[in-house]
Amino acid sequence: MAIALPKIGDLFNLAGKSALVTGGTGSLGSIAARALAGAGAHVTLAGGNKQKLDEIVKEINDAGGVARGVALRPDSEENVEALVNGTVAAQGGLDILYVASGFNKPGGVAQQTLAEFDSVLDANVRQTFLISKAAALKMKDQGRGGKIIITSSVRGAVATNNSVGYCTSKAATDMLVKTFATEFGPAGITVNAIAPALFRSPLTAWLYEDTDRAKAVRANIISRLPLGRLGEPDDFTGSVVFLASAASDYVNGHVLYVDGGFTID
């Protein structure tokens, strides 16, 4: 009896899906937005930098994707409701939330002030909770399932110096993912995280330069990476589309390390 081979491409097709990306002007948020649009989703990008937001939206639309921008951060209940309801009104629903909004204020335990520590937890935990809650409840009301993807970090699992607020916030993010996944899984809503190591971005561009300082820091980082190199944007794209698509329908409450092997025990 003849068998039909699975149409693998269909599993990753996001045509007709509605996506919201917070932190859409950041390095990983903009990569995620481009990836989702490239797979066929209609994307709303949210961010506080309107000029940068407009540039990325134009870039996606000029390349044949469908995107719109909203100059809001998910830092209040009013803003997250506006983002979720605006996406639903503009795109006919909400199927995918990608949370890339966040913040880091480097500092060790002795150096970091309480205000700095609180600001990191506010951006990375409180705001993630607010937007994920609003999106999950909307998806549940729609009755068609959904995908929530949250940006974590290898520093949620591996402590590093000078990062007390950030490491703490990302460990909390990982547990937030698991609790949301437990609660909303019965509604067909999967909640997962992507935990990257270092990727090329405007903030890390200096690490890729041909200077003595960059070479020394880069060598130290690469010594912990079995793949022997730092990450490039294309290394991140596939994980976003996988967790946003039907290919991951049975993946829930998982932290996917996209880190070149940094977290191998």
Write up this protein.
The chain contains 8 helices and 7 strands. A 7-stranded parallel sheet has the order 3-2-1-4-5-6-7, with helices on both faces. By secondary structure, it is of the alpha/beta class. α4 runs parallel beside α5 and α5 packs parallel to α6. It has one domain: NAD(P)-binding Rossmann-like Domain (Rossmann fold).
Radius of gyration over C-alpha positions, nearest whole angstrom? 18 Å
Helix content: 40-55%
CATH fold title: Rossmann fold
CATH-scheme architecture: 3-Layer(aba) Sandwich
Series of H and E elements: HEHEHEHEHEHEHHE
CATH superfamily: NAD(P)-binding Rossmann-like Domain
What's the overall average pLDDT, rounded? 94
Which of globular, elongated, flat, extended, rod-shaped describes the shape?
A: globular
Number of helices: 8
| Secondary structural class | alpha/beta
Task: Please outline what is shown here.
By secondary structure, the protein is of the alpha/beta class.
